[in-house]
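Incident log, structure service

09:12 report received: a user says their structure output differs between two submissions of the same chain.
09:20 pulled the input from the user's history:
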Amino acid sequence: MADKSTAAIMEEREELMVSPPGGIPTLRTAHFLKPTVNSQKDTPPFPFFFKTKTAIFNDKKALSRVQFKGRRYPQKDWKKWVDQLEPLYGTVWKKAGVYEAVMGSTYQTLRHNALIIRLAERWCVETNTFVFPWGEATVTLEDMMVLGGYSVWGHSVLAPLNAKDLIETDASLNKARKNVKTGGGLSGNQYAWMNHFLGSGHQLEHEAFLSLWLSRYVFPTSYGCVAQNVFPIAIYLSRGIQIALAPAVLASIYRDLSLLKKWTNCNSEDGNSECDLWAPFQLVQLWAWERFPALSPQPNALKCGEPRSARWHRLKKVNGVDVSKAIDYAGESFEWRPYTKLVNNWVISKFYRETEEWVWVDSNMNKEAISFARCCRDSELVGINCQEQYLPHRVAMQFGFDQDLPGYVSRCSGTLEISWENYNRSIGNVELYMPPRLHESDVTVRYLDWWKEKMLALEDEMNGIPRLNRSENHSRMTRTSLGSIQGYQNIVPPVSLSICNGVKDGGAIEEDKLTDGEILNHKSRKSVREVAGDNQPLYNKHNRDSSSSTTDVGAGRKMESIESVEMRIASEVLKERPKRVMENAERSEVKRMLRSSRNSIEKITSSDKTRILEMDLEAQITRLENIFARAKAAKLNLLI
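09:34 re-ran on a clean worker, output below:
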């Protein structure tokens, strides 16, 4: 059906798929962004991130040395200037692909710097992605289009002026920059520049307006001056010629996220270092507010014609929320595709289809579909004084695709011009798959295995725990998740309680074969000497030391409370069991109805069936580990 050549952006094939938190695998037709690999040994090195100690981020003096200089609020008369020029040049801005970006500059996103720093803590410099306990995500070209209003189409931001009249206009702007000064003699001051051209009717007013917009809100490089290197871009835009601002802005964000990440890593060693950031980090904050419900304020209602960023105009951050925990626990609530949801007065892009479609790409194809293809294809991002790699296949679920093991993409070596050619290469002669707007993506079973194993290894490394020389099967069967004790329960597969670690007469007690009353009775008698695999006695009322034996009646009440806690946890598990079974049954039934006949159960091989059984058993063991960890934590709190 689809072009399977190397030029193809995506591929279609049958795979055993599972929801990102885990569950029972399903054989179905899935769609992936290329490149992918079939074996863990072929994957590039796992994205490494060093999680900085929390104490550093509680140090206000240290954080004050991080300066977000690229986050610029609108000037006093900026909106007035925009409103004056919009009737005259609004159609030109639309033709140039900057209309929403210009209008969006009149809105204000109040700073939540702690959120940006917490995200940077989880940034991977090698892949330009955030590495969360529950998966990978990142800011993409799609976010630049929707939140920033920038175009993925057009000439490079480094394109030179090649016509005589354009070169003369550039010379005039440079001359004006020298003449427009502040009282202190500073040339090109932004406030003096606006006061000089605002409402003047000058023949350069439009170019001067766009130059200020670019210097202050798109590519800020200094606090006070209009930059000379944006004049060619402003001249092109004033003629309605498109410039690909989206990749350039995203490149600056990647660059500064990596800079901030490196600063956080070395800050504990060098307490006097400063970090100046010039990228428009309000876009990263908007990205987070769109995707992390626990961290986002209640959005404003959009008025007709307003840009997406107006939803967050002048809203304050949510107080009383632990940002780190909200991020690390967001596996179930993270919004992979926030822009596909219906919002009043928000016009959904044409590449968000109601049903899946295959579209043939050619030179006459609509720009919306090709824009979507550029968002989904790996490339080199060329900005002003920066170049970064773009790897959307690592975050395929953000585009409605399924996720498999990501393949390696080599960097484009050479000049910025060669890198731009890499970004601007043709997408012709392939079939483009457009996923349905409300599709819920899954991951392959091998991806889930790979991710859990790598996160487990990373957790051990960060905690200074040496890895045991366990066999692959043993490690998979005994520790398949990070566990809720470390705050990572969102990657634990939800399962029903079907086995128990309790031992009776040398054999395992299969609680699914007992009644609810028998299970509770068993749990009330269960010793606490084995909790989460720890064979040392946690508490034994018959083997206490002399000081323990002289405790008062209050200790008896505490012991009763421990038993009641144990009973309550068991009761909660039993209450969750029917609900979870129903949820799994409903999910399976929906998938069964949607699955075509070629994905019938007869196609599942014996090895696939064995893997499904393994996954189910792994999930059950993980669930029990978390139950006993909760019991241990509760008992320790009561004994203190």
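09:41 both user submissions now match this output. Likely a transient worker issue. Closing.
09:42 reviewer note: The chain has three domains: 10-49+346-444, 54-335, 494-639. The CA atoms of residues 244 and 352 lie 21 Å apart.
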